[in-house]
Amino acid sequence: MSTVADKLARKSSTNTSAKQVRLRLVYVDFWSAVKLCFLAAVAVAIATIVMFFLIYLVLQGTGLIAKMDDFFKSFSDGSVTLSQFVGLPQVMAFASIVAILNLIVITVMGAIVAGIYNLAVKITGGLLVGFTSN
């Protein structure tokens, strides 16, 4: 089986002092991929919660929420206000729900990708990776 990587390796076979190794990735451990994706999802969840909090602080500091509250009061005769629905506890609760859903989705997607890669390796032969020591 002659691939582009094989041809490039033969062309660049000049005298180098560094040792070159070509390895083929033929298996991704399922549980390792799940654990790694879970840790990445935790980082994304923390970033999501912090992002929601900072956006709320910016909107509150600029007075945009108060202006939108006045806008909604003009339509609803003052009975429904935006501040009832957009307070810090509500925003943080929504951010937590989004973060938990992202955590679940990212972890499951990582598991699915690892499984699909392990199935695709049987057809394609794996990913050829070249390493060198300098």
UniProtKB/TrEMBL annotation:
Keywords: Membrane, Transmembrane, Transmembrane helix. It holds the Pfam family DUF3566. Residues 19-132 form the DUF3566 domain. The chain crosses the membrane at residues 33-59, 91-117. This is DUF3566 domain-containing protein. It comes from Microbacterium rhizosphaerae.
